[in-house]
Amino acid sequence: FVSVCHSSLLVVLLCFAAATCAITVRIQGLGEVVGSETVTARTQQRVHQFFNIPYAEAPTGARRFRAPVPIAPWTAAKDVSLPGRPCPQPGITDQLPPGDITPAIEDCLSLSVYTKNVTANHPVMVYIHGGSFQLGRASDHPPNYLLERDVTLVAVQYRLGALGFLSTLSSTIPGNAGMLDVVLALKWVQDHIGDFG
């Protein structure tokens, strides 16, 4: 018994020393994601975090400027333990913290899920970042204070600027792709958030 307690304590301490412990969630109809853990700011409650979960195929090539296409299922577990790269936007390097040289990437249609318990049913909050449809990313505002309560938080990334909202009033570039990204992300939440509690 003492040996088991010491082993359990060692595992817990190693998790805190590494600042993250892996947690795997199976998203029905899509595949597995492997997230990490953090703690809330005020009361140091454990929070499971899953960054950069794709909800749409990459909007590149023939898909650029078009409505998003739902993500296809994957076979290998996806490592979603670190924040993803932001969508292209003007002045991205000006708004990053010092030392962060994260380049923007067009394959950015993803969301992040934060929850304290992956088996309990909690109310869901969806955060859609501001920035006048020009700036922002899902990881701009960490959930350190929001998750002091029993909620599941989802933060969405969507196409910005010309890639998200350019319109030539034609079928080639109809416009409002960024808004359609948000609609698809909300549908993803409706269909899959139950797998996260």
TrEMBL record:
InterPro entries assigned to the protein according to its UniProt record, in alphabetical order: AB_hydrolase_fold (IPR029058), CarbesteraseB (IPR002018)
Report keywords, A-Z: Glycoprotein, Signal
Protein's UniProt keywords contain Signal: yes
- In the record, which residues are listed under signal peptide? 1-22
Q: Which Pfam family, any one, appears in the UniProt record? A: COesterase
Q: Does the keyword Glycoprotein apply?
A: yes
Carboxylesterase type B domain ranges (all copies): 25-197
Checking PANTHER family in the record gives: CARBOXYLESTERASE TYPE B DOMAIN-CONTAINING PROTEIN-RELATED, CARBOXYLIC ESTER HYDROLASE
List the protein's name. Answer: AGAP010916-PA
